[in-house]
Amino acid sequence: MFGDHILDFFGPTFDSWLEENKLLLECISYSDIEILSDDHPGHQKSLEDYMEDQELAFAISSYHLFYSKIVIGSESAKVLEISKEFPESLLAELKSFAPGFTKQ
Question: Which range marks the domain in which residue 96 is found?
């Protein structure tokens, strides 16, 4: 299931691009809404709001550049988070071959 989402969004050359650039991919749940701690009175509401707002996202990080990470929404096709250490050149490359970015 996730393999299909990844292939649809990034295209067939994505795996080799990750390997070539020493990058790792995680499929994560993403939302701007913070889940409050279990003992907070608003915990249940924050959890429900998070679940309603979330989207499947792709987190790409480097295992050779410390703290280098980008998070891309699979539905919104937007960069949701990017660390200042993530190279702009890699983002440009990704946008040039990933069909998912054409949804923007």
Answer: 2-33+41-103
Is pTM beyond 0.90? Reply is no
Range 96-104 contact pairs with CB under 8 angstroms and sequence separation of 24 or more: 97/10, 97/11, 97/13, 97/14, 97/17, 98/9, 98/10, 98/11, 98/14, 99/8, 99/9, 99/10, 99/11, 100/8, 100/9, 100/10, 100/72, 100/74, 101/77, 102/77, 103/77, 104/77, 104/78
Split into its structural domains, the chain has a count of: 1
Residue from 101, 54, 60 nearest 77 by CA: 101
Cα torsion through 48, 50, 54, 58, rounded to 10: -140
Per residue in 39-89, pLDDT (tens digit) is 999 999 999 999 999 999 999 998 877 778 999 999 889 999 999 999 999
